[in-house]
Write a structure and sequence with these properties.
Number of helices: 0
Structural class: mainly beta
Strand order of the largest sheet: 1-2-27-26-25
Order of helices and strands: EEEEEEEEEEEEEEEEEEEEEEEEEEE
Helix content: under 10%
CATH class: Mainly Beta
Strand content: over 45%
Number of domains: 1
CATH topology: Neuraminidase
Length: 287
């Protein structure tokens, strides 16, 4: 694997020194990588969007096709039971795959109309699930809903609208305490923030960060509440919305996920490749 040493200035996180880190390219030669998701069984899944495939990446093994036809999978995440939840952008639905391989539809329509194009998903430890529903490119012409949405699916499977957004929502993440919901807006180049209650209801919408350089895409949080964003570069914000680190990547990142068995690795899908960075801080992972 190709190794790259990158200097990221003097920015330092509470538990992660970004003055000098190692970036490892772990997969390449794909068309457009997205939707990384780490399984506690010890492997990473990611989407190669134009080909419609989900790829499995395990240590000391060559990349393998996990699902040859994924309904246009973009963002994915594993829940606390190890089930894979996937936003199928082309199929316009959100699905969950059981451990036995059965595919269950969690969301497909809102008020009788088909969803636009589900893009990314985040799952709280108690099973409350949130996903974004923008419409990019040709998907915009096939819309039945006249808005872009952020949605909540309760543990009982009840679908509710969190918000209608004027810009297209993209990545979604939950704080380690489960009391905050973050959503990136690729059009307005900002991150929105909601408070979450114990039942999973989102309130008090506000702007967390604005003026992001490059359209923000995927977003995740670490165990201390830091907010990690894939944009023109990898950006890290504190809970107060202040930028604490910026890292230029060999390719512009699209999405990211914490992984490895200790949750101290960051995997980034970036254009034609997948990269891995070992960290001193743990990610906020459901499992």
């Amino acid at each position: 694997m190709r190794m790259l040493w990158v200097i990221a200035g003097a920015a330092v996180l509470s538990a992660q020194d970004f003055s000098k880190i190692q970036i490892e390219k772990v997969a390449g030669n794909y068309q457009y990588t997205e939707g990384p998701a780490w399984s506690r069984e010890g492997f990473l899944l990611f989407s190669d969007v134009p080909t419609g495939r989900i790829i499995k990446l395990a240590a000391n093994e060559p990349p393998a096709v996990f699902r040859p036809s994924s309904g246009g999978a973009h963002g994915s995440a594993f829940d606390a039971q190890g089930r894979l939840v996937t936003c199928e952008a082309t199929a316009r639905r959100v699905t969950r795959t059981t451990k036995a391989g059965k595919v269950e539809v969690l969301a497909e329509r809102f008020e009788g109309k088909r969803l636009n194009s589900p893009n990314d998903v985040a799952i709280r430890k108690d099973g409350n699930l949130y996903f974004t529903d923008p419409a990019f490119g040709s998907q915009a012409t096939a819309r039945e809903l006249d808005f872009y949405g952020v949605y909540h699916v309760s543990p009982k499977g009840e679908l509710a609208l969190v918000a209608k957004t004027s810009g297209r929502p993209n990545g979604v993440a939950i704080s380690p305490k489960g009391d905050r919901l973050y959503v990136t807006d690729s059009d307005q180049r900002l991150i929105r923030l909601w408070d979450l209650d114990r039942a999973g209801k989102a309130t008090n919408e506000r702007v967390f960060v604005s003026g992001i350089e490059g359209p923000p895409n995927g977003i995740k949080t670490d165990e201390k509440g830091g907010v990690w964003v894939a944009a023109k570069a990898l950006l890290v914000y504190g809970e107060d919305g202040k930028l604490t680190a910026k890292l230029d990547m060999p390719e512009s990142p699209a999405n990211l996920a914490f992984g490895d068995q200790d949750a101290q690795a960051l995997y980034l899908t970036a254009q034609k490749s997948v990269y891995r960075i070992r960290l001193d801080i743990k990610g906020n992972v459901v499992q």
